[in-house]
Write a structure and sequence with these properties.
The chain is of the alpha+beta class and about 260 residues long. The chain has three helices and twelve strands. Helix content is about 30%, strand content about 25%. The strands form two sheets. Strands 1-2-5-4-3-12 form a six-stranded antiparallel β-barrel. A six-stranded antiparallel beta barrel has the order 6-7-8-11-10-9.
């Protein structure tokens, strides 16, 4: 009895461990490891959540930081545009110095017809003033309020501008086409024009000064009746106008009353 007890005390722990190992192996075999996997998941899930899920405050802070970074980029872009615009304005003679303005309104149903500017009569803008942007002529001030003004774009279907082909002097009427292109109807049946020619306002224009860049000839149709026509790609970024310059009527005096039967 004493010998068996001593043997059990010395070997019992080993036998118990062996039983646990064999039992665990049998359970794993029967459950195909699912039980052990569930135990592992229950132990490690809180740790994983702490490692991968940032606190709500941190998520809000990251979103705010991204918003501020985007705002900084936008402000830097606007500052660059303003500096370029001011340098351009300062080069103009003081008597005819233009008024900078920003496009603040544009309807989806009249995207190519008109835009609203953030400056009006209080800034000195009047109906009939000329509007330009990078690239050339944009349009004409159509109506004015104290703090806003509305521009009739040269891409409007109602718009008609007297223009000339700079290379040859061929003249015609530029009509808006509700797109980034316009249609040029020539006075001559067979004008001396080719794709790539630059188009500018002519001395026949009553409402615009001559020599303002308008666009470039994209294609030509000499068989069109009653007059030949050309498709003109407009230089100013009509589809994405932002900052513009508004010129007083004094700039137009030289072209007033020239060709009274001609278009704008």
């Amino acid at each position: 009895m004493f010998t068996a007890r001593r043997w059990w005390e010395s070997k019992g722990l080993q036998i118990g461990l062996l039983g646990v190992i064999v039992g665990s192996a049998w359970v794993l075999r029967q459950t195909q490891g699912a039980l052990l996997f569930e135990v592992y998941q229950s132990v490690t899930r809180p740790i994983q959540m702490l490692q991968t899920a940032p606190p709500q405050e941190e998520r809000f802070r990251d979103a705010r930081l991204l918003e501020l970074q985007t705002r900084v980029v936008e402000l830097e872009s606007q500052n660059k545009k303003l500096k370029q615009l001011l340098r351009y304005v300062e080069k103009e003679p003081l008597a005819s110095r233009p008024i900078p303005a920003r496009v603040t309104g544009r309807g989806a149903d009249n995207w190519w017809q008109q835009v609203t500017l953030n400056r009006g009569s209080l800034a000195g803008i009047q109906e009939g003033y000329v509007v330009k942007a990078d690239g050339g002529l944009v349009g004409l001030i159509e109506s004015v309020s104290p703090n806003t003004s509305r521009v009739l774009l040269i891409s409007d279907l109602k718009s008609q501008v007297g223009v000339t082909v700079s290379r040859t002097g061929a003249k015609g009427v530029l009509r808006g086409d509700s797109s980034a292109d316009a249609v040029l109807e020539f006075y001559e049946k067979v004008p001396n024009v080719k794709p790539g020619d630059v188009v500018a306002t002519s001395t026949y224009s009553k409402k615009f000064p001559s020599g303002l860049a308008v666009g470039r000839v994209k294609s030509l149709d000499l068989k069109k009746l009653p007059a030949s026509v050309a498709k003109v790609e407009l230089f100013p970024p009509i589809r994405s106008l932002d900052w513009v310059t508004v010129y007083p009527k004094a700039e137009n005096q030289q072209s007033q009353n020239i060709g009274s039967a001609k278009p704008q």
